[in-house]
Fold:
Amino acid sequence: MNENTIRQAIEAIETADRIVILTGAGVSAESGIQTFRDAQSGMWANFDPMKLASQDGFAQDAGLVWRWYMERLKKLGEVQPNPAHLAIARLQKQKRDVTLITQNVDDLHERAGSQAVLHLHGTIARFHCNECGTAHLISAVEMDADQPPVCDLCLGKIRPSVVWFGEMLPQHELQQAWQAVRACDLMIVIGTSGVVYPVAELPFAGQRAGATILDVNPVATPISEMANISLQGKAGEVLPLLVPQ
Ligand code: OAD
Structure:
């Protein structure tokens, strides 16, 4: 990452009329939230995603799944948005047309001041019945329990409203994301390994539709390789350079 590439990125932001920002776990890494695929530190290096994030896993051991998500939810209450979340929120205030799409289930973008965040993989702090789909609120006691609470309408098990492997993405949000991607002239992709579909398809679709792709990631990914501008660095260090206070 040299000064020229940074200057090129700033100019791309300044001249863009419609911007889409797509974030992944890397944008929250410097807040202390584990990513999924980083070797050793990533969650999927130590946990089996099929046991924790699938219908089969929930059917086999709902308590394990519940406790795992509740631990992550509690951890979220202990961390803060980092300079990358804050810079993204600033950009949304400075430019008229900035759509923020995230794969993250945390609320750090909202807590940094971003609005209308499209959560394509759901939200860890919302809950619904796994059987009838009714939305539920969770008490502190239920959060600490060994097993998920039970739906008072159908006796199904309550689960966090996150997208598990093999499940559909929220269709309304996905549609809005596709629309924004097709219409944008700059897409800023931050902290995603770019291997989980359909979201990983979005930057490629954006590029095909004519958008400039700007990637921010400390390591090379399929997206940094196809990007028009690739900034190899940490989101919390790079984003404040692109959107100064
Ligand atoms: P991954 O864990 O797959 O990738 C995180 C990316 O962030 C990697 O490319 C890292 O190099 C990068 N990264 C690490 N630290 C960073 C930093 N400080 N600044 C910028 N980038 C950094 O996470 P996602 O791509 O978000 O889905 O994963 C996509 C989906 O896979 C998740 O939403 C989740 C997971 O399984 C579901 O649970 C459905």
Summary: The mean pLDDT is 95. The first helix runs from residue 3 to 15. The radius of gyration is 18 Å. The pocket of 2'-O-acetyl adenosine-5-diphosphoribose is lined by residues 24-26, 29-30, 35-38, 42, 49, 53, 103, 121, 163, 191-193, 196, 216-219, 221, 234-236 (CB under 6 Å).
